Amino acid sequence: MWADVDRLLNSALDVGLNVVDTAAIYPGSEAKIGKAIGRRRGEFALFTKCGNPTSNDDPYWNAEALEASIERSLKDLETDHVDLVQLHSCSEEILKRGEAIEALERARAAGKTRFIGYSGDNQNAIYAIETGAFDTLQTSINVADQSAIDQVLPKARAKGMGVIAKRPIANAAWKTGKKPVSEYHHAYWDRLQKLGYEFLSGELEESISIALRFTLAQEGVGVAIVGTKNPERWKANAKLLEAGALNGAAMEKLRAKWKEVAGDWVGQT
């Protein structure tokens, strides 16, 4: 219901959340954000994405389509500019064509976005970094998804890119103690069963705190994108960070277990 959306987003800003990340492909998301908090535009950094991550077809990735998508996003978000426009997990092949990158560069030059970025994982993310075209990278980083820590983040840091961690608490796939219904969470559930981290058997709030603090402790990570449907969750998440950064011993234990078990696990888009 609309009242829930309005309460959710405004309560987030009220407790100090200062980044909102969305995408053109998320049904109704941009229009709801614009209606609910467009009048508070100066209180937060606004990120969106263009393109369709489920398709490599030209109708989604040619310059005309991307530019039209950005225009729709600005209209729905009720603003004349966003802080960041990202390509939404397109392939290395699309990046190599150059057209998608050029569309974002034109949007930046026209003042429609302050920065441009790439959202994606693995080799596609590495190629995006190596182009030198992007200001930011959004990629999956969490206790069940650590490949980017070794393979991607060092390259992004070398380019001076801002890093946004998506899925920073591994979707809390362990929270019910049972395999989640949604297939979107299954890879993380399966990985966590094999990793067998001790902290996952503790109190849920404490385990989420450790997971979130792990992600935010990775060098170069500036933003963690955590989603919720509960307006009270924002305060709870802020409280989870009061314990501060994980100590070196705890961090090394989690990293060592990953290196022992993960094998060829790659980032989950």
Brief account:
Helices cover 46% and strands 14% of the residues. It has 13 helices and seven strands.
Order of helices and strands: HEHEHHEHHEHEHHEHHEHH
CATH architecture level-2 label of one domain: Alpha-Beta Barrel
CATH homologous superfamily heading of one domain: NADP-dependent oxidoreductase domain
Morphology call: globular
Helix content: 40-55%
Within the largest sheet, what's the order of strands? 1-2-3-4-5-6-7
Mean residue pLDDT: 94
Any idea of the CATH class of one domain?
Alpha Beta
How many strands in all? Answer: 7
Report the CATH topology name of one domain: TIM Barrel
* Beta-strand residue fraction: 5-15%
List keywords for this structure.
269 residues, alpha/beta, TIM Barrel, 7 strands, globular
Description:
Helix content is 46%, strand content 14%. The protein is α/β, with parallel strands linked by helices and 269 residues long. It has 13 helices and 7 strands. Strands 1-2-3-4-5-6-7 form a 7-stranded parallel sheet. The chain starts with a helix and ends in an 8-residue tail after the last helix. It is globular. The protein has a domain at 1-140: Alpha-Beta Barrel (TIM Barrel). Strand 4, helix 7 (122-131) and strand 5 form a beta-alpha-beta unit.
